[in-house]
Amino acid sequence: MDVQEVLQWVDELVLSNKGKHLTNLQQAVLLGVWDSQRYKEIAQTYRCSEANVKKAAIALWDMLSEELNEKVSKSNFRSAMERYHIGASIVGDCVHSNVFQGNINVCRESQTSAGTPNERSPSTSNPDKVQAKQRHDLTDAPERAHPFCERTEELTTLKQWVLEENIRTVTLIGLSGIGKTSLALELVEQIKQNFDLIVWRSHQKFPTLESLTTNLMEFCSQHQETQLPSLIDYLSAHRCLIILDDLQETFSRGELAGTYLPEYRHYGKLLKQLAVNPHKSCLLLLSWENPIEIATLEAENRHCRTLQMNGLGNSAREILQERGLTDEDKWPELIDLYAGNPSWLKIIATTIVQLFNGSVAQFLSCPTPFLGDLDSLLLEHYQRLSESEKLIMLWLASHLGLQLTRKPAEFTFSHSDFLKAIQSLSRRCLIEKTAEKGEPYFTLQAVIKEYVRDKSL
Ligand SMILES: Nc1ncnc2c1ncn2[C@@H]1O[C@H](COP(=O)(O)OP(=O)(O)OP(=O)(O)O)[C@@H](O)[C@H]1O
Ligand SMILES: [Mg+2]
Known about the structure:
With 457 residues, the protein is of the alpha/beta class. It folds into 4 domains: 3-115, no CATH class; 135-308, Rossmann fold (3-Layer(aba) Sandwich); 313-370, no CATH class; 377-456, Arc Repressor Mutant, subunit A. The protein is 51% helix and 9% strand. It has 22 helices and 9 strands. The protein has helices spanning 3-18, 24-34, 39-46, 50-68, 77-91, 94-98, 104-112, 127-131, 152-164, 180-191, 209-221, 231-237, 265-276, 292-300, 317-322, 331-337, 342-356, 360-365, 374-382, 387-397, 415-427, 446-456, and strands spanning 135-137, 169-173, 197-202, 240-245, 282-287, 304-308, 402-403, 432-436, 439-443. The strands form 2 sheets. Strands 1-3-4-5-2-6 form a 6-stranded parallel β-sheet, with helices on both faces. Strands 7-9-8 form a 3-stranded antiparallel β-sheet, with no helix packed on it. Strand 8 and strand 9 (439-443) form a beta hairpin. Helix 2 (24-34) crosses helix 3 (39-46) and helix 3 crosses helix 4 (50-68). The radius of gyration is 25 Å and the shape is globular. The termini are far apart. Bound molecules: adenosine-5'-triphosphate and magnesium ion. Magnesium ion binds at residues 180-181, 245, 286.
């Protein structure tokens, strides 16, 4: 047995537990400890502090102890690994026999994948056979949020759609930083046992439809002997969950929401095919705006759903707590002002710490909302708008709200274009719909209003 085998096994263990590969520092710790080096020596070789090495080591020992069901530490790491390696060849049990053959992920899933009776499991008829096929690749996903503020309602809805109603295409839409990626990560964690295959891909990494579908088919094809002709064949053969993040990158700027850039126009066909044709998998799309065909299909096809994400509400207190802000009685006002957007709150909390020593009361006593570093985030959204959408936003920035039946005289475009622009702004989550005397009434969130007002000066 050599250290490379151990590294590979621990790497797969970390991947299955955390959805990430070993970091360079964690690898350095394992290699160093294997060679009986002290933490100080590892730190010198790796050029980092001894405290960082210790922290990485403790996390690894905790995970290995839990996995092997015995206390693993620096002093017994090597002997524990060697013992398990010998045990593996004798015992022949799924977990141990595969421990050093790169299959730990598969077998760990098999241990935990019984699922609750209500959950649709991929493995009800022949657990051993199907569970052995489980494989989850979250290497392209970012880390999960810590602390993760509750999203109970959203998670319940999503689990209902995916597990109970077998919805084929679920789209999470919302402004940048609202928490789409974080929510999807949490969902995956909670439902992963129900899928044979899970794969997370970001548009940033697979910027063409061809590279994306080829990669997805390659991933799926590792789980069966015969190659299948198309992605949908794989999605029919296995229960797969595909998460496609940052879909907004496929859409044009300066046009209504969900209009593909010319080079991505084929995306629409694929999305439509996956929503309309029968298969047993689920595609989870994360985007700033809803693709047009999904919005249309949703109206006529019961296998498509969209969840528009709102702010965090009171659970966002955890973010402020973690940043060490004071004046707790003012936190609801701050959360409300920044619409519960976790990213905005994190950015503003940093400003409050830096400029106001953490005092939320002092911050709120200044003219608000203060935008600071939010400016560049909002610019990204603003630059995507069509001319008619910009005009409506500018108008809304200096008025209380807008009713559909009363198109302001300043707008020279037709009523039909007016409605299209409002619908598009709504699909981008940039305007909010309330009711005024029973009639829909569209308004801007305070932060967005301030941004657009600034722009118009
Ligand atoms: N429920 C949550 N609890 C705590 N922090 C959160 C939560 N949701 C999101 N965050 C934090 O807010 C930031 C933005 O979250 P996330 O990346 O999930 O947003 P997003 O909607 O995917 O944004 P984008 O569209 O720009 O990709 C991250 O720092 C994340 O850790
Ligand atoms: Mg994201």
